[in-house]
Amino acid sequence: MPRSNSLPVFVFTACACSTFSLHAQGSPFQTPGMPLVKQPVAGQGDGKADGQSAGQSTRFSSEFNPAISFALDGLLTHADFDGDEDGFELELRSGEIGINAWVDPRAWAYGIVVFAEDEVALEEGAVHFTGLGGHRVLRAGRFFVDFGKQMQAHEHELRTIERPAVLREYLGAELAGDGVQFDDWHSLGDETVLRYSIGVFHSLLGEVEEEAGSPFAVDSELKELDELGYTARLTAFTEVGDAGTLQLGASARLIPDFGFELDNGASAEGLDNSVLGLDLTYGWADETNTRRFTAGLEWLFDAGDNGAAVNDSGTPLDPSDDTIDTFDETVNGYYGYVDYAWNQQQSAGIQHSWLELPEPGEPTLSELDVYYTHNLSEFGRLRLGLTFVDAESGADGMIAALQYTNVIGAHGHGVNF
Amino acid sequence: MRLDRLLLRAAAFLLLALSAGASEKLRVVTTLPDLADIVRQVGGARVDVNALVKGTENQHAVVAKPSMLIALSRADVFVQIGLSLESSWVPGLLENARNPRIAPGKPGFVNGSDGWPALDVPASLSRQGGDLHPHGNPHFNLSPRAGRHLAARILAALVANDPAGRSEYEAAHARYALALDAAEARWAKAAERLRGVAVATYHQEFDYLARECGLVIVGTVELKPGIPPTPAHVIGLVDAMRVRGARLVLTGAWSNTRQVAQVAEQAQGRVVELPHAVTNAQGSDTWIGMMDQIHTKLLEALDSLPRGP
């Protein structure tokens, strides 16, 4: 399996950089033979003496700058696990810069750059093309895939401090893909909306915490069409009575080809994995819209090659001849929650997640989260959470966490309902 | 079938289809029920109107429902209050509804606050000031003068989107203006008794009403717009109410909280829950009826207070 092929990436990057940088910065003289620089458009200049300002075609005009936001997510945690080291941790979990703007009358784009654990990553960068008519949207770029009710959301936007265990284990703590997604909705009567999406991605391997010496999932840089990853979602959203809504959904993530590798070069190739999910969410709000109740359930089935472990049957304690054992048992799990907001600022909830791990014997893992959220303002939030972990194949324990999250500026992701 | 009969039937069908199209009502969707009522008064039988939210809801934080998306996707005209009142939920709905007839800038998109002189326009935009509305206080539907302004905006919008109905719309608007004349006279008379009365409010939603009635607002229970009170702020507010003789705390259904009751109790006053939008309840199911009820409730509350210092 080739691990790198930098030529197409280089060509693409070079083209993108040359085009965008020239358009963004312009030149005092546009001489024949230079790449075409966008000329000032009537009504877009600032009317100043030089007559050159035209939004994005000059260096110093900020008239068409995008909306910018910054989100901070900080955690104070105390972990207490059987047979493990206990203690406090104070961390800035993430700092997230977001930009949003319309590109032209038919498309808007956004970018999300995240600083987390001393790394900087472009978590999302996508354009939503809305010029297809009807309610159709074509999204292209890198973005969180449309799976269930939570995978589109970033961690700092969740109801709980962490994503439910079953999602983390089967899909990853976060699941972004480089690809395209088609999205559309239709009405059924006056109170029901049916939405569907289909996505094609280069890679759909979720973000997982890698353990030293363990196999890690890898994807080919060059793929055949039938090796690309696919997502699909169908959801119906309807009203129940005067104050309630009910949403029912089905999601799929298919990875037809991927592999596992070890640091010693050992690999397992030609693997495939499918995750299917069913979700049900009920929401209720009182007549003032300040007291709200939400209950949700999402059930996932993970099939195909869904895990790997080191096979140390060679020379004992010598990792150089280790190989990889893969697991392919179909496992399932769920999370369910109830959440109640009794006024505009305060809410509390309880969430339970249970799953079978894709390891020999299919040991189970369950997590119980109890949380209280206080919205200090529209843009500042304090949350206290307790997580009780019960693991058949690991340590049981408890994590207490205090989370502070704030957002400054106009913040938004490409989330759909 | 002979060709001439076939043509005759086709022509009759076409005529029927055209006449059916001509008699179809203008589909109007509004954010607040206040706007829906005024559209109904001016549009009469030519419009089919519905409001997205109930009059009891917190208008700042509405939870979107499927019916809202569907209604907006089918609408010919959309009317909002504006001044960022609906900014947390309407843009997302419009984006998903993808209805070009009601896209901002199109004749079907009507911003009710256009041309309205807003109060409380922030001198500087910073979240230190709480959940500020950049263009000023959006709760102008509670001004006794708002009905006339909104009716004029809605008349213009209906005529622009349905020119064939111009004479009907203008006649209905004229009738509504007469009803407003009579109502405004009633409210002006009530205001004579309310002028100079000191009050506190939970949120800055009664600023326009206070200005027209001459009520003096000594403070809000909220620390800043959208920011709940701190104990120190409550103590300061109660002190200010005592010093200035304010014994009424005005609130809406969505904001009638335990804190409001505490402030009223400590200031030896009482809570007055006023409609903050048109509701389904009898008496406040039209905009004029709602304003009548607001003035009546204020006068009753004033009369219920013990006389003397």
How would you state the average pLDDT of chain B, rounded?
91
Order of helices and strands of chain B: HEHEHEHEHHEHEHEHEH
What's the CATH class label of the largest domain in chain B? Alpha Beta
Q: How large is the count of helical segments of chain B?
A: 10
Strand content of chain A: over 45%
Distance between the termini of chain B: 94 Å
What structural class is derived from the secondary structure elements of chain A?
mainly beta
Number of strands of chain B: 8
Total helical segments of chain A:
2
For the largest beta-sheet of chain A, the strand count, sense and barrel status come to: 16 strands, antiparallel, barrel
Query: What Rg of chain B, in angstroms, do the CA atoms define?
Result: 23 Å
What does this structure look like?
- The complex is a heterodimer of chains A (417) and B (309).
- Chain A has 417 residues and is mostly beta strands.
- Chain A is built from two helices and 19 strands.
- Chain A has helices at 6-25, 165-170, and strands at 67-81, 87-104, 107-116, 119-129, 137-144, 176-188, 192-201, 216-218, 229-240, 244-261, 267-285, 292-304, 307-311, 323-327, 331-341, 346-356, 364-375, 380-391, 397-409.
- In chain A, the strands form two sheets. A 16-stranded antiparallel β-barrel of chain A has the order 1-2-3-4-5-6-7-9-10-11-12-15-16-17-18-19.
- Chain A is globular and about 65 Å long.
- The two termini of chain A are 38 Å apart.
- With 309 residues, chain B is of the alpha/beta class.
- Chain B has two domains: 3-115 and 127-179, Nitrogenase molybdenum iron protein domain (Rossmann fold, 3-Layer(aba) Sandwich); 188-303, Nitrogenase molybdenum iron protein domain (Rossmann fold, 3-Layer(aba) Sandwich).
- Chain B has ten helices and eight strands.
- Chain B has helices at 3-22, 33-43, 66-74, 90-97, 146-161, 166-194, 207-213, 231-244, 258-266, 287-304, and strands at residues 26-30, 47-51, 77-80, 109-111, 198-201, 216-220, 248-251, 270-273.
- Chain B has a four-stranded parallel sheet, with helices on both faces.
- In chain B, helix 7 links the parallel strand 5 (198-201) and strand 6.
- In chain B, helix 2 (33-43) packs across helix 5, helix 3 crosses helix 4 (90-97) and helix 6 packs parallel to helix 10 (287-304).
- The longest helix of chain B is centred in the middle third of the chain and has 29 residues, at 166-194.
- The radius of gyration of chain B is 23 Å and the shape is globular.
- Chain B starts with a helix and ends in a 5-residue tail after the last helix.
- The relative contact order of chain B is 0.12.
- Mean pLDDT of chain B is 91; it is low at 14-22.
- Chains A and B meet through strand 9 of A and helix 3 and helix 4 of B.
